[in-house]
From TrEMBL:
The protein's name: Transcriptional regulator
InterPro entries registered for this protein in UniProt: Antitox_HigA, Cro/C1-type_HTH, Lambda_DNA-bd_dom_sf
Domain HTH cro/C1-type: 70-122
Organism phylogeny: Bacteria, Pseudomonadati, Pseudomonadota, Gammaproteobacteria, Methylococcales
GO process terms (BP): regulation of DNA-templated transcription
Length: 123
């Protein structure tokens, strides 16, 4: 029997369903962690898929300037401009963050590898 038939969940249809699912997934993440063998791992996977499907259809993520994406990632990881010297010289990073220079395709690829995300977020 498919999992959703077994538990009787039909999906996330409203903002209230979505909010409840987000709260539930936080609890599940704390409980399950990275343990794929955990008894609740299938519930976590199912709920994650349901949340993603709802977000893909209903949640609009505003366009963000590439320099702001870079700034955010640097802040999240506690990085300074000089910490990105493996991608570009500190002066170039400074110019990008100041809006004086755009991110080239080549540099976007290096940032993507550095931060483990898609290159197009930097373009």
């Amino acid at each position: 029997m498919p999992f959703k038939e077994l538990v009787g969940v039909t999906g996330i249809h409203t903002d209230d369903d979505y909010a409840q699912a987000r709260a539930t997934i936080e609890v599940l993440l704390d409980e399950v962690g990275d343990d794929e063998g955990h008894p609740l791992a299938d519930v976590l996977d199912f709920l994650s898929d349901q949340i993603k499907a709802y977000e893909d259809e209903h949640v609009v993520i505003p366009e963000t300037e590439p320099k702001e994406v870079l700034r955010f990632l640097m802040e999240q990881q506690g990085l300074k401009q000089e910490d990105l010297s493996d991608c570009a010289p500190q002066g170039r990073i400074s110019d990008i963050l100041a809006g004086k220079r755009s991110i080239s395709k080549d540099l976007a690829k290096r940032f993507a590898q550095r931060f483990h995300i898609r290159a197009d977020v930097f373009l």
